[in-house]
Amino acid sequence: MAKAEHNNVTLGMVRDSLIRQEDTIVYSLIERARFPLNPPTYDPSYASIPGFSGSLLEFFVKQTEAVQAKAGRYDNPEEHPFFPDNLPPSLVPHYKYPEVLHPAAMSININKLIWDMYFNKLLPSFVSPGDDENYALTAARDLECLQAISRRIHYGKLVAEVKFRDERKDYEPAIRAQDRFTLTNLLTFTNVEEAVKKRVAKKAMTFGQEVKLGDDGDKGKYKVDPAIVSGLYADWVIPLTKEVEIDYLLRRLN
Ligand SMILES: O=C(O)C(=O)C[C@]1(C(=O)O)C=C[C@@H](O)C=C1
Question: Ligand 1 centroid vs 140 CA: distance in angstroms?
């Protein structure tokens, strides 16, 4: 969402942004699926980088996040690093982002959970097994997937803020009672969730089809299985977005 739009943000605008972010997530999965699993990317004993203990992936993510932190990426409240400890400060002029969220939002970062889900559950389900030795590109594509998924899930903070402002009298008692169950019911729109799952599967079909001239191409063959993309949303993206919404709301009156 553009910076200026934050002041009068509506649920419709927030949902439009979530819809646009679906494109980024689906494309990033398609790009990662160009490479097989490439296990050495994740193997600390393969990397043996002087002065660094960890996998090539960790090295790549930490170094990239350090550069991006210096360039101001994490000044933006929509961005969350995977390795927040010891990040260098921003070196660029500070843009004063409109303060839309409650300050407690700063303390919410569930990237550890997202990292574990991505590498343990999601990745093995949509890439082919094997090794083509493109480890640096593999790490770069993984980070793009992680960042896109993380941005979407942490957008739950803004979704929750807008819902809170729209229905303050319903949310306040549940927040005071720290009642997760009622908060979950208040913020859940089953029809919206069903539409999201269907739409991302359709995007995976549309963006991931082989485009050929002259014949019908490989009908029904997709670069990433649409069922895996809708499963990612059903099992992880939507539940974790709701988790962020609840974590945020529980702190909203602090
Ligand atoms: O659109 C909303 O209202 C959201 O809170 C986002 C979202 C989602 O993750 O897509 C999560 C919970 C709602 O039940 C519907 C959809």
Answer: 29
